[in-house]
Amino acid sequence: MKNSKYLFLFCLLFTPALNFNINAQSTISIDDVLQAIAENNYDLQSARQNIKTAEILTSKLNQGYLPTLSASAGLGYNLNGIKQVFNFNFPDLDIQNIQAYNGNAGINSSYLLYDNGQRKLRNEKNVSSLDAAYLQEDNINQVLGFNAAQLYYNIAQAVFTLELLNESLAISKYRVQRVNTLYEYGNQNKVDVLNAEVDVARDSLNLNAVQNDIKNLKWQLNQLTLREDTNYQIDTSFELTYKNAQFADLQSKMLESNKELKILEKNIELVGYDLALADKVNSPQVFANGAYNLSFQKNSAKSQIDLNRSNGLNLGVSANWNILDGGQRKLQNQLATVDLQNTLIALNTKKNELNTQINRLWNTYQNNLLNIRIEQQNIQTNRVNFDLVKTLYESGQQGSVEFRQAQLNLINAQAQFYSARTSAKLLEVELDFLLGK
Q1: C or N terminus of the chain, fewer CB within 10 Å?
Q2: Signed CA dihedral, 40, 41, 46, 47: sign only
Q3: Residue 111 bridge partners (DSSP)
Q4: What is the DSSP string of 203-229?
Q5: What is the pLDDT of residues 162-214, one digit of tens each?
Q6: What is this structure's pTM?
Q7: Backbone torsions φ then ψ of 292, nearest 5 degrees
């Protein structure tokens, strides 16, 4: 009864403080973390700037369907002199300070009528480049989410461990109180007291180490979410989502939705446009041209012509065709062909890597599910054993060492269960990454 009272007082003293700390901290879910990354992360902000650039390149101003129009104008002043000496009996001609004013103005316009589809191909490539920019943003977001999820569930694992260590420390402190009481009545020796105190110190050190690990993991998570403090809790009530999944379905989904595969497929499409443009680089181009020009010159009274003015409207069609380019078209075609082959090789290589990864992950995941079931049974066995040893220990039929070992066996079984469960969730995070989620 005396020992039960000590344990009751211990729980009474420490439980309110523990509840206060939990209540004072907000709990964030994995969805909250992913939303914070999407809103705040600098890498994603940079990727969105690239999307804006790609959107500008697809605008009407860059499609080549608008005509060009330019205007020019000029004014001038001339001051000239003429002196002519003839060989015959003609009077010399000597006129100085002949002034003249002149000016011109013109408007020129041009519009591309035909280029054998080059303009259309460039516009389609720009649209495809915009799609590639969105894929890059999705891929960056997925990589960040993958890293964040790993940190998140590692924190959850550390929280599980912290709970177990708190439980272990409470039991160890209870054991110290009991040993001290028995020592006072001569039923225990000093070695038992020291052993119990050493176990309390060890449990306290382990507890502090895990608390420090949690704080460090939270700071790493904050680098992705841009939070400024670690005063938050992790939602540890996660569920395993692929327990009943079929491997063939996951593999098919991976080949269909994997972000890296989609980027490589988009790169193949872009290289295809480069190849098509290389084939048309020397195609003829036809332009419609128009111009209106006005010029005048106002002379002084010393000139024979007082005013000279001209104006005219010019309309026409012009064409240019690069018949011989020194092999540049062939060179570009060859380079684009090599790029296309390299990208196809990269795509097939990535598919092979992904198939290997998903097979490895699936086998490991199934093994973790088996470990979870085994550890659940192991926890039940060790709990029954611990309760039995505790009863014997309290009645003096079992020693302190045996009680400590039963305590450690139960804690280790619980830790192994949490570890297997968290490992399975981390494997699901990797599967989500392969599936493009």
Answers
A1: N
A2: negative
A3: 288
A4: HHHHHHHHHHHHHHHHHHHHHHH--S-
A5: 888 888 888 888 878 877 877 777 666 778 778 878 888 888 898 899 999 99
A6: 0.76
A7: -130, 125
Q: Is the pLDDT of residue 133 over 90?
A: yes
321 against 186, higher pLDDT? 321
Share of the chain above pLDDT 90, in %: 35
Q: What is the overall mean pLDDT for the chain?
A: 84
Could you read off the pLDDT of 289-308 as tens digits, one per residue? 999 998 888 777 766 677 78
Give residue 39's pLDDT: 87
d(CA 297, CA 76): 9
- Containing H/E element for 70? strand 68-84
Distance (Å, whole) CA 168 – CA 172: 6
Helical packing angle, 259-279 and 328-394, nearest 10°: 180
- pLDDT-derived band at 346 (thresholds 50, 70, 90) equals very high
Within 26-95, where are the H helices? 30-40, 42-57
Tell me how far apart the alpha carbons of residues 94 and 82 are, in angstroms, rounded to a whole number: 6
H or E element that contains 289: strand 285-299
Residue length of the chain: 437
Q: Is 101 exposed, middle or buried (0-12, 13-18, 19+ CB in 10 A)?
A: middle
Structure tokens, 140: 């960056």
Strand boundaries in 119-259, DSSP class E: 232-234
Report residue 195 as tokens: 């052993």
Kindly state the tokens that stand for 91: 């009077």
For 320, list phi and psi in degrees, rounded to 5.
-135, 145
* Residue matched to tokens 């009077």: 91
Q: At what angle do helices 118-184 and 259-279 cross, to 10 degrees?
A: 160
The full set of domains in the chain, from first to last, is 2-40+116-284+323-434 (1.20.1600.10), 69-114+286-320 (2.20.200)
CA distance 145 to 135: 15
Burial class (CB in 10 A: 0-12, 13-18, 19+), 267: buried
| Cα(13)–Cα(203) distance, integer angstroms | 19
In angstroms, the CA 221 to CA 227 distance is 8
Please give the C-alpha separations between residue 383 and each of 352, 380, 407, in angstroms, as whole numbers.
Answer: 46, 5, 9
